């Protein structure tokens, strides 16, 4: 068996990082983000990054760490509302942002990973999102052309992995991770725990090992909560 | 005078039918969950990849891996399933969600909706709102009838950047209920809130509408 | 809970069948095909069907039953090689066939179910499959425009279902079933066995119940094998 | 004279590297599975949604739900995962499969491949072949050097309808091995089968090629 399991994030990212690169990351808000790999990317000092991620983290956590360190030039995201440092850099003209509707972003990452160069969606027709994009009629309705995204590197967070790098995600921490895992020219995964070969039911693999070139055990599983709501507080 | 937010949520909740799959937006729409008739079976969907949302957890049961699209911690039910974001928006874009209840900054008389950005203010992004209005079969908007300075939010045309064109099927404000038969139809006033007269309503409504009470 | 579980296939299909309709079916070869529902469609006598299915069954099994009964006018398939009656009808001009490359067919069904009107693929560029289809350049390479498929009815076969119609497929019987389940205006599933609510791990649902409007227990699980190969006969 | 089918399969098998994910077509390519060096780790993919194919089962272990793309009953391994057809072709079209080994009716000197239909004969359909040649990184073709009536199958241009244009990277016949550096390069003869002379080869080859032995 080819050993794709690395000792730590620095080893797993060795040779993969370069200034000006595009990195796609799984996660929604702070849920299901590859904390360990993000920390290692911060420490590497790599700069001028384009990040493809639904959100931008918060000021001191998640991708917010890379923003705070001034390593990010451009974000492709659907929602960046929880990050003051993001706002400061954006208003200062230090940061570019390409907004994608959330479903379009998910589909663009899936498309990039699946060899689909572009696709037509109704989402965003007649809005600012449509500016500069081709429109085509299907069944008398206008649809927008959106393109697939392929990143230089994709980083994802999973719950369980076997030595073949078959991955299982946990609950809503799945979110963008499966598509991110497919859309990287190379994909590095971090996982909460390893299990033995043959332990994962072949019917229950979320991301087959073919998509994961390097794997580490997550050193950090802080799983910070953005909005802790408990039953005392309604619903 | 007018309806409270809970009353608005209750009005929207009565639009939901047995067996519906429903996506609730952030803000007033979140209140709808509490107002659904226990006699009907409604499954709530959250666009971050959860189908079958339960209530907020007890303190001891908080799980950072179980959140809704508003990033709030929630719980799962015996019906719950998780999917990827791509598959979640497959449900939404593909027309499999029966209704979405959303907040708004402005609604226009042609059904246009604006709820994602205000020029000059920091833009946070559309999130999943554009996908929801483009794909969900029926869009119900809950919003205050006027803005903070008393200006109409139900307009002839939206002044703010659009979330979608001709996507609103029903509008519930604190002062009135407007419905339209389909997306070729004009909005019809079907009910006034208690203590609101038609003249008062017209005074704070820029949009044209038919009065079919 | 809304009861979506019907007593039998006739009840589950009641009101859904009409001449000239399009039916999408899961299955690859004879693996993972909705045997019970196919038999009920044969018995209904509905005619002039367009079938969207990777294969056409064999002469006396699978969708071959509907072909033999003269109920099919048109097939949208990738491979129809195992069916003599198909060949006879096709050569006699009684049957039309639209060939789709297998991956394109899978993607077209997924697209139809996901509100994607069309997508661009390299598959089929420069071949007969490209005839009459638009080509567009992405990154200097030509891609073909293929369109999403929405069927009037989709029929699928699953292994386990709970009363909410959350489905799990088994092994390579999964194949086209998940996409078929999404691309029907209405989808009817048959399942080998029902399990209680809450029995299926929410992380392991293959097709969430939202896609399935009616469900039956499969009356027929013959699972005929097309090519029985055993270890005596080489790897 | 020339190589047997097993020898051709062995030649192709030596092109596979440790850690490769490989899709094998129907016919001669199936024989490659037996020829892979046990010292390297190769994962076989089947386009009907199985990654990690095992050998044929013992009679008692035949499972109708475990088949390969040739519809043969097979077994799973401890690495196996199943995916939908859409996800399976995501692997293929997305360039995640390292190599595919396919049969052919004709190969042209520009890399065109024809292996799915003969005009006038009943057309069975392309199956997954067009997707494989469009998406897999490296395409190795195994075919007899001449057809049943002795005509060349490695041609200046394919006479049969194409499966893909400029997609073949390596051609192994019973008489010779041809490689090209990349898809802008011409094919080069790199090896003759035992007992085959270059003149004999040229006599049964319509395609131009460089001799770089």
Automatic annotation (TrEMBL), chains A, C:
InterPro entries the record matches: 3-oxoacid_CoA-transf_A, CoA_trans_fam_I, CoA_transf_BS, NagB/RpiA_transferase-like
Q: Which UniProt keywords apply?
A: Transferase
Q: Does the keyword Transferase apply?
A: yes
Q: Does the keyword Transmembrane helix apply?
A: no
Q: Name one GO molecular function term.
A: CoA-transferase activity
Q: Which protein family is named in the record? A: Belongs to the 3-oxoacid CoA-transferase subunit A family.
Q: What is this protein called?
A: Succinyl-CoA--3-ketoacid-CoA transferase
Show the taxonomic lineage.
Bacteria, Pseudomonadati, Pseudomonadota, Alphaproteobacteria, Sphingomonadales
């Amino acid at each position: 068996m080819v050993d794709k399991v690395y000792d730590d994030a620095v080893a797993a990212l060795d040779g993969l990082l370069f200034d000006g690169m595009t990195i796609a990351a799984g996660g929604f808000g702070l849920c299901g983000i590859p904390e360990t790999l993000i920390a290692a990317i911060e420490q590497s000092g790599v700069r001028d990054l384009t990040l493809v991620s639904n959100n931008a983290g918060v000021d001191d956590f998640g991708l917010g760490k890379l923003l705070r360190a001034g390593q990010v030039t451009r974000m492709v995201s659907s929602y960046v509302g929880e990050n003051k440092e993001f706002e400061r850099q954006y208003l200062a003209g230090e940061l570019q942002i390409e907004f994608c509707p959330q479903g379009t972003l998910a589909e663009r990452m899936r498309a990039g990973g699946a060899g689909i160069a572009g696709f037509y969606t109704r989402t965003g027709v007649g809005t600012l999102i449509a500016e500069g994009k081709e429109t085509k009629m299907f069944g008398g309705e206008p649809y927008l052309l959106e393109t697939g995204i392929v990143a230089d590197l994709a980083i994802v967070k999973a719950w369980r992995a076997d030595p073949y790098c078959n991955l299982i995600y946990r609950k809503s921490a799945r979110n963008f991770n499966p598509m991110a895992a497919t859309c990287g020219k190379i994909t590095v995964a971090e996982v909460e725990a390893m299990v033995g070969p043959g332990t994962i039911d072949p019917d229950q693999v979320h991301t087959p090992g073919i998509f994961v070139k390097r794997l580490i055990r997550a050193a950090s599983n802080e799983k910070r909560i953005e909005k802790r709501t408990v039953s005392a507080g309604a619903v | 005078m007018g309806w409270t937010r809970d009353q608005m949520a209750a009005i929207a909740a009565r639009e939901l039918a047995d067996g519906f799959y429903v996506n609730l937006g952030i803000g007033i729409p979140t209140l709808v969950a509490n107002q659904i008739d226990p006699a009907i079976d409604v499954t709530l969907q959250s666009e971050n990849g959860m189908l079958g949302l339960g209530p907020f957890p007890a303190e001891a049961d908080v799980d950072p891996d179980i959140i809704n699209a508003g990033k709030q911690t929630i719980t799962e039910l015996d019906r719950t399933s998780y999917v990827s974001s791509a598959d979640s928006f497959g449900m939404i874009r593909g027309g499999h969600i029966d209704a979405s209840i959303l907040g708004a900054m402005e609604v226009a008389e042609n059904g246009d909706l604006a709820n994602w950005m205000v020029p000059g203010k920091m833009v946070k992004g559309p999130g999943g709102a554009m996908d929801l209005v483009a794909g969900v079969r029926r869009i119900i908007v809950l919003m205050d009838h006027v803005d903070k300075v008393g200006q109409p939010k139900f307009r002839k045309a939206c002044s703010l950047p659009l979330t979608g064109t001709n996507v609103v099927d029903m509008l519930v404000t604190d002062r009135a209920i407007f419905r339209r038969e389909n997306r070729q139809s004009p909005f019809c006033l079907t009910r006034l809130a208690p203590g609101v007269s038609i003249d008062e309503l017209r005074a704070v409504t820029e949009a044209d509408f038919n009065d079919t009470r």
